Amino acid sequence: MRVAMLAPISWRVPPRHYGPWERVVSLLTEGLVERGVDVTLFATADSVTQAQLEAVVPRPLEEDPTLDPNVWEPLHIANAFENAGRFDLIHNHFDYVPLTYSRLVTTPVVTTVHGFSSDRIKPVYRRYAGRVAYVSISNADRDPNLPYIATVYHGIDLSEFTPREQPGRGLVYFGRIHPDKGVAEAIAVADAVGLPLAIAGIVHDHEYFEREIAPHLDGDLVRYVGSLGAADRNELLGSALALLHLVEFAEPFGLSMIEAMACGTPVIARRRGSVPEVVDEGVTGFVVDDVAGATLAVGRVGALDRRAVRARVAERFSRDRMVDDYMQVYEQVLSGARIA
């Protein structure tokens, strides 16, 4: 099987720190190569992979402001589709724009929908629904007006996360600093229970950071530690009592939740979007409805078996399981199936 993997180009594959879509692409690509699949990765030129790398974009767009997305994004997409005849299948992780190329080639196209940035882009998905096989990353993130061939939950490389049987004392927030992600709510919970909070992630909304987050930073009870690479991520998540994921939007999946769980760290998350699918209530954490519920849950997480948290993630969210699921999707598509 020859697969063209079309990655985003905001960040390198794999990302140096932030870049959830790019991280999933990297894990899937390397897992497929290890299974003997002939994969060509279309990504930035500085990407690192065992697959064959095809690149026209020299560096990640988020790391080089001199690169105009209006120029490099179409060049990147076109490079993959101009080479479509070399492949049995194109797997698109670049959102909706590549769909508009899909009828210009005969090669089957699979698109993983990593969440809808806006309802305004959905007409593109609807227009190409008969041509492209869509994969959702959670059942909650499915649009009722679109057909899907499967739901494939993200998987992670468990070897990157060290299980810790003893809980730490502090709480952690890990993700983009944005109102949607519930950072201010995490601070409110930490303040209510009198525990320290470490905040990690890129600042996506600078006004929100300055208004809602910065005034609480004291370097002790509330710390901002920036955007972390793999080793520091492992240390921070593993040393926490719990991860707070009090999102204010319908979470499409939530990689940080399973990354924390892989360290044995339970998750306290708001009941939005995929959260009830990802968090096993009373096993890997608690699903709550508000700050008050999260505050009460902090007092309960210490009783959870961190070994069971890690075991459940290994069962449900490993890289190997994700690769298995996508191999099944590819086989269905190549056999002519479109809708699950």
Query: What is the typical, i.e. mean, pLDDT?
Result: 96
**Main sheet overview:** 7 strands, parallel
Which regions contain 5 or more consecutive residues with pLDDT less than 50? Answer: none
Number of helices: 11
Helix fraction by DSSP (H/I, runs of at least 4):
25-40%
Q: Identify the strand order in the major beta sheet.
A: 3-2-1-4-5-6-7
Q: From the alpha-carbon coordinates, what is the Rg to the nearest angstrom?
A: 20 Å
Query: What is the strand content?
Result: 15-25%
What is the H-and-E element order? EHEEHEEHEEEHEHEHEHEHEHHH
Oligomer: single chain
User: How many β-strand runs?
Assistant: 13
Structural class: alpha/beta
Give the CA-based shape: globular
- Separation of the first and last Cα atoms: 22 Å
Short recap of the structure:
33% of the residues lie in helices and 16% in strands. The protein is of the alpha/beta class.
Q: Which terms summarize this structure?
A:
six-stranded parallel beta sheet, seven-stranded parallel beta sheet, 340 residues, 11 helices, single chain, alpha/beta
Tell me what the structure shows.
This protein is an alpha/beta fold and 340 residues long. It has 11 helices and 13 strands. Strands 3-2-1-4-5-6-7 form a 7-stranded parallel beta sheet, with helices on both faces. Strands 10-9-8-11-12-13 form a 6-stranded parallel beta sheet, sandwiched between helices. α1 crosses α11 and α4 crosses α9. The longest helix is centred in the last third of the chain and has 16 residues. It starts with a strand and ends in a 6-residue tail after the last helix. The model has no long low-confidence stretch (mean pLDDT 96).
